[in-house]
Protein 1
Amino acid sequence: MATTTKKKPRTEEAALGRDTLLGFYRTMLLARRLDDKEIQLKGQNKIFFQISGAGHEAIQVAAAAHARPGYDWFYFYYRDRAFSLGLGMTALDHLLQAVGAEADPSSGGRQMPSHWGHKALNIVSTSSPTGTQFLQAVGTAEAAMRARELGEPLVETTGAKEDEVVFVTTGDGTTSEGEFWESLNSASNLKLPVVYIVEDNEFAISVPVEVNTAGGSISRLVQSFPDLLVINCDGTDLVDSYAAMGRAVEHCRTRRGPALVHAKVIRPYSHSLSDDERFYKTEVMRNEEAKRDPLVRAAKLLVDGGLATQDELARIDAEVNDEVQRATDEALASPQPAPSTAMMYLFSPDVDPTAEQFDTEDDPRFTGGETTMVDLINATLKDEMRRDPRIVVFGEDVADVSREEMINDVKGKGGVFKVTAGLQREFGGTRVFNSPLAEANIIGRAVGMAVRGMKPVVEIQFFDYIWPAMMQIRGEVATMRYRSNNAFASPMVIRTTYGGYLKGGSIYHSQTGESIFAHCPGLRVVLPSNAIDAAGLLRTAIRCEDPVLFLEHKHLYRQVYNKGKYPGPNFMIPFGKARTVREGTDVTVIAWGALVQRSIVAAKQAEEQFGISTEVIDMRTVSPLDMEAVAASVKKTNRLVIAHEDSLSWGIGAEVAARVADELFPWLDAPVKRVASLDTWVAYAPQVERAILPEPEDVLKAIQEIKAF
């Protein structure tokens, strides 16, 4: 039997205690052995991807030791295997994801390995896009802060705790993403309890840290953020990591602001099995890294400190190997998801905004005189905020005034188009507030709030500037429920103005692009054409449990022809229910947004000038799309014109035309005709803008052509 000479442990080791350090070591070893097992399984073609957390284990178990699973919140990146094990996930949990099993608790077989998620532990579903997690972590911490300010029932809804902490982890490379800096800005500005852990292994795949980061040290760059505690540590040293994490977590639990731990670690394995680090690391570099292996250092600490013998460590190794093998056997025998589950959880399985419960359109309770779309959207927001205390409204310029002490001394902004005017005065600055001028910041924070049960209704000031938030919208908002197998969701309403027909809009204030978002599974896309529909559709958007892109046409905000009376606080229009705005028998025109009124004008001209009876249908939503209404009309008229403001090519019109060709060809007496914008940007000069955008005469021409076919 091997023996070791008893040595007196250092003060730091003694303070942690033998059992604690042995527990750390076991978790680290389990993480490493799981990496090794997955690499083996990948070589046997029993799993299909592998990315390891090797070399990061010490800082991760130290972080987990200071965390409270199910109490604190966690936003991981793909190397946090030991962290997730330290919080309570099991070897079987990890291997079920690796094999893509139905029982995988992280995603039900929908995500690749190392994308952790666990509802009970508050590990929010991890995704692949690098850097999106930062703003979500900020939003989750912010939700608790605002809930405590608002009191019950928000505290109960969000599970807000007085001293909870949100942990967010990253590699050194991802700190180059703009959302990292946006999140630090908001976390510091709001003094939020977010613990950033930068696991710096000095390489982002093959790119070294000095190429990613000016000066080669992220901790030096972030020193100037107010109330941000910055700590450097050796992330391969258990004792140093434990002390650093203790300071950071205590700083956040006592509400002194966010903290950032910059932990220097190693990456002894390649970035993933799709990479080979020998192409960009010398043998000398790899050997030097090996000397700092956290597993080797932890074992040496235990043995040299007299806290364990080599035999004890060998027994732990054997136990871990047995645990991994048992978990492997069970995972490989676990059933795969059935093909029939492919479409499950794109949307809420419990609340269906296309259902009858959302259809109160036939029973409006009108009050007041006719007014504009702006006014009815504003009234709907107010009614819904009175009804549901979970709703928060934020974005650029949406508040009446950011400096709330001035609210009685100024008229107030309330949005560029005054859509949110007066909301802050009634509901206060905790529920209605301005964001930084950063679109990803708005959506990312909203995700973090939504996963905790709040209902963000956020504004992107102009559709033309939504693109910095596209990764958050498409990669996070639209996928959250699906990728977590319904464990997490991010229901929110994203309001944004769009469209042309306003002189002076030009390229960056006049675009339409609903087809891009309709192409995102898991996202509802709504385009009201009049004031009453805007009220009913917005109420449905807020009350449903899916993410909704609510497109408000600037040109329609204050038009006389689309005014309406307020239809009451329970007026709803279900998604996917088109409305026939003009009956006809010869030609069908379907449209949405600003093209509805232009199509009505064209239909009247067609009847008055040429005797053509034209039916006009307002689709109202394009995701979902009411193809039943289209089919019913086409079977009556046998001719179809599709009119939309977006560019002609690659738009919703092409999709509808394709479906009609597939499903309704026997009823067609003429080709399907599309009317849309030219395939270019909207220009500034009025006469050029008019040439680019579809007008009533364009719709009229299409009606004439297919009637004459």
Protein 2
Amino acid sequence: MQDRGVIRTREWQLAAHPHGEPTPEDFRLVELERPDPEEGQVVVRMLAMSVDPYMRGRMRPGPSYAPPWEVGQTMKGGAVGRVVASRSDAAPEGALVLADAAWRDIAVLDADHVTVLPDLGVPPSYHLGVLGMPGLTAYAGLFRVAAFREGDAVFVSGAAGAVGSLVGQFARLRGASRVVGSAGSPEKVRWLVEELGFDAAFDYHDGRVADLLASAAPDGVDVFFDNVGGEHLEAAIGAMRLHGRAAICGSISQYNAIEPPPGPRNLSLLVARRLTLRGFLVGDHADLRPEFAEAVTGWLSSGDLVVRETVREGLEDAVPAFLDLLRGGNTGKMVVRLAQDQG
């Protein structure tokens, strides 16, 4: 890992801003030398890193809710690792930490830029998924943004992904009258119904989403949690009951679009049915983390929550994992395992 005074790292950098769907040529893996940690810094060996749909937006130049990645910049994202050297009492050697430091195998970081994680007896990668950003996104979007109430009927698009699979389960555990999900393959549909307890699910390739949703939820829905956008959003608006609420989390169907896609054609229903469509960012709901952590750790301990990960091995596989994620190649949370935990 290091010679005296030098720490060698491997890091993925953005090689070009993608035009449409990203390709492997838009990324490059480089070896760099980093200086030994200074006072207040730590060296972290990454155990697992996250790839997430929002990262596609960071590769697009122009104003957004977060600064875009520049060409030549080491890409960032959630990662969990062990502190292997420390010059800070706040993050001692051996501590398990969460950091916005991927895509790399080793990082020298300011100690105040990492979060020391509790020992919950779960795989470290859970802090990137069910106990991490996707889990909090599902919790905040469903319970605060969409104002879920017991007895609501819920529709989740992208329901087999890291966020959607948790939204459906959270709704079921809190007393939803019906939980419906869409996914991209028959295998995912079966997983949603047979293992996660969704009341119904459909493969959106099988027909018009509006028709498939009408069959799965013939009495309509009260809450829509959207990870996909496009045709799914239009179909959900058409299916929503009076005073329905939608939490707009993402629009993965449009992330690679070169031209702006057309919007839903039935927005007049927002007035007639007094609907609420609200976009949100998980960072605006950090105050919910203690409540979220208590609820989710309880569900994990009781065995009421099903967690599934799609795991890729090695830093070299980070880009293929990310590209597969954008094509729907994951079930549950996509993570890249970088090292075995020796802690």
Protein 3
Amino acid sequence: MKTAMRAASHALALGVLLVSGAVWTISQQHPLYANPGKLLRLPAAVVDATQPTEQAFRIGEVLNQYTHDRALAFRIADALVDQAEKEHIDPALLVGVLLTEDATLDPHARSSVGARGLMQVMPLHSGKWGCGSSDLFNIESNICHGVQILKEAMRSAPNTRVALLRYNGCVRGRNTPNCHLYDDKVLRHAGRAAAEMRLVKTQKSE
């Protein structure tokens, strides 16, 4: 009887040792899995990363054709959609302006006359409109400034074409050769972008 009890005691001790070792190993290899409760205390953005809106996703896929940096394309798309919604401007039109100004999607682009960034904003506009930053090479700040300039041009112009020419500074057509063609380029890019956006497959469209 004593021999049987001793054997059972040894078996129980061995079992406890094996279980403890397994738990320790798991906790070293997968610390989060060892204590799942920690996941519940993580910020929501970590547990469930924010997904782009359907419109931003469509624009991101369109812009991705112009750069090898997919993250950049979607960051630009998010900023465009954000400003389009705030100012009630067709996002496809903003895509048209952006691609006309810089089809390489270079946030640090600088023109020969000093215009900066994606929307080619002149430094004299820096810091206006509460865009969060006066850095015109910052993507969100640059797009915010550019959209505000376009909005002001649209408010005072008789139509979209004239507003686009004013955005480009082509008031009398003497500042840039063939600047009178600017509105055609923007609207062509905008129309192509709108058509391509409709073809992008999303979870809602499938």
